[in-house]
Specification:
The structure holds 2 protein chains of 2 kinds. By secondary structure, chain A is mainly alpha-helical. Chain A has 4 helices and no strands. Chain B is globular and about 55 Å long. The chains are: A mainly alpha, B mainly alpha. At the A-B interface, helix 1, helix 2, helix 3 and helix 4 of A face helix 1, helix 2, helix 3, helix 4 and helix 5 of B.
């Protein structure tokens, strides 16, 4: 535990560093210059892979060797996929999936 | 014009509203339970605005790390953001003064919304994107304020509400899957991340996944580029 002043300094350091990680691509590839083809290509295909990676990231703390073996997450994700393919309604898929997940972990997989 | 863009943007941000208010609340509770004042929590959500990083920040502060270690930890946790901008170079090109804020606020959730959304044709694109980013940060700050000021008096058991974020990514995944004939990139992301998670464990796998994804996609460029252009025809 450190004082408020020291904390403030670290908070500013974290804020600046976070911004740096976000701004670097825009500094390396400024709008006036032509973006290299490989970068333009990666910019186009990366979102698909990154969204998939973020799903895994959200589910990273599941243990498949211990009860409930990731079952609540599996059921809720499956629900979201199926309902979304069926109705394409953002709120229904996300709201429904979240409520289902909360019910599952609070009442069924306690 | 602004109001129209705002109204068009809001519905898309509702899932993030659910997720961020909950996660922001959890962050506020977590920081203040260590004895920090509520305004520090809110300040962090205003000037850092990075979900997972702020949870790590709690231990950075309580541990009283040096400036150098703080920079290194921040870079490690946020390394994936280095690549988000690549998909936004074009989108942010003509955003003028808003561009700086768009870059600052490029979180996982804002990134995934911006990647997957095309605003309705009569809506000003730049204001639409801007409001998505701004609303998302407002939700995050709101959650932080709730958690840091009133965290101990929340009346219902909200355990699991953060699944809204997972569900949001799953929905975007489904929509991207349906909009594209070629799934190599999506499958690469899933498999590489899974393999890295199994090998490196939950704390370090993201940076290795990012590198693995870049390698696979770079090497499959010839194959993929042809398919992408075919998709557009």
């Amino acid at each position: 535990m450190i004082g408020i002043k020291e904390s403030l300094i670290l908070i500013v350091v974290m804020a600046v560093t976070t911004f740096v990680t976000r701004v670097i691509p825009f500094i390396i590839f400024p709008p006036g210059k032509k973006t290299p083809e490989i970068i333009a290509y990666l910019g186009k295909v990366l979102p698909y892979a990154i969204i998939a990676m973020l799903i895994i990231y959200c589910l990273k703390s599941i243990s498949i060797t211990q009860a409930p073996y990731g079952l609540p997450e599996f059921i809720a994700v499956l629900f979201v996929v199926l309902v979304h393919k069926w109705k394409h309604n953002l709120l229904l898929s996300i709201g429904g999936g979240t409520i289902l997940y909360m019910v599952l972990i609070q009442f069924f997989f306690v | 014009m602004k109001l129209k863009a705002f109204k068009a943007a809001f519905p898309y941000t509702v899932p993030v509203l659910l997720g961020y208010v909950f996660l922001g609340t959890a962050f506020g509770i977590s920081l203040c339970s260590k004895g920090y004042p509520f305004y520090l929590a809110i300040l962090m959500s205003v000037i850092i605005f990075a979900g997972s990083m702020q949870f790590v920040a709690v231990s950075v502060l309580t541990g009283g790390l040096s400036i150098l270690s703080t920079i290194i930890i921040t870079l490690t946790v946020n390394a994936r953001h280095l690549f988000y901008g690549l998909s936004m170079l074009d989108k942010f090109k003509n955003m003028g003064r808003k561009k700086l804020y768009m870059i600052f606020s490029l979180t996982d959730e804002t990134y995934s919304l911006l990647c997957s959304l095309e605003p309705p044709s009569h809506i000003d694109k730049n204001w639409f994107y801007f409001f998505i980013a701004l609303l998302n940060q407002c939700y995050w700050i709101l959650g932080t304020a709730i958690g840091s000021i009133a965290g101990s008096v929340i009346p219902f058991d909200s355990t699991g509400i953060d699944f809204a974020m997972t569900a949001l990514f799953v929905v975007i995944f489904v929509e991207q899957w349906e909009s594209s004939k070629n799934h190599l990139s999506a499958i690469t992301g899933l498999l590489v991340a899974l393999i890295c998670l199994l090998i490196c464990g939950p704390d370090n796998f993201i940076i290795f996944s990012m590198i693995g994804i870049l390698i696979v996609l770079t090497f499959s460029r010839r194959y993929l580029e042809k398919r992408i252009t075919n998709d557009r025809d």
